Amino acid sequence: MSGHTPGSWRVIVNDEVNPQILAADGEKLIGEFPTNGHPPDSTLMPDVRLMAAAPDLLSACQGLIKMMDDGLLVRDISGDGASGWAIKQLPLVLAVKAATEAIAKAAGDDS
């Protein structure tokens, strides 16, 4: 996927109240979140940090999915015949599905 500003992005706070997200080059402004001179509320900074982590999170998800596709991530199959083994795989399947959907959403293909 391409098209977005390469990461890693970083968060800065100007005048102690206006968080911004800057690109890796430290020059390009990705986003700013004016607070009208008031300190940020309790959710603003965690939200801004999450947004700044987006390129790194996307890259991590893409890397994990690629490793799975390439057969590099393996699991212990010795218990596959045991009772309930399939249901134990459900969290992994759901996590892979969530990662795949997040990648699609980042690519603009979240329909």
Can I get a quick summary?
This protein is of the alpha+beta class and 111 residues long. It contains four helices and three strands; from the N terminus they run E-E-E-H-H-H-H. Helix 2 crosses helix 4.
Task: Give the spatial strand order of the biggest sheet.
Answer: 1-2-3
Number of domains: 1
Shape: elongated
What is the alpha-carbon Rg in Å?
A: 19 Å
DSSP strand content: 5-15%
Low-confidence stretches: none
Count of beta strands:
3
Q: Quick one: biggest sheet?
A: 3 strands, antiparallel
Q: Kindly, what is the distance between the CA atoms of the first and last residues, rounded to a whole number of angstroms?
A: 17 Å
Can you give the mean pLDDT? 86
Structural class: alpha+beta
Helix content percent band? 40-55%
Helix-strand topology string: EEEHHHH
DSSP helix count?
Answer: 4
Detail the topology: elements first, then pairings.
Layout: E1 10-14, E2 18-22, E3 29-32, H1 44-52, H2 54-69, H3 85-88, H4 90-106
Antiparallel strand pairs: 1-2, 2-3
Helix pairs in contact: 2-4
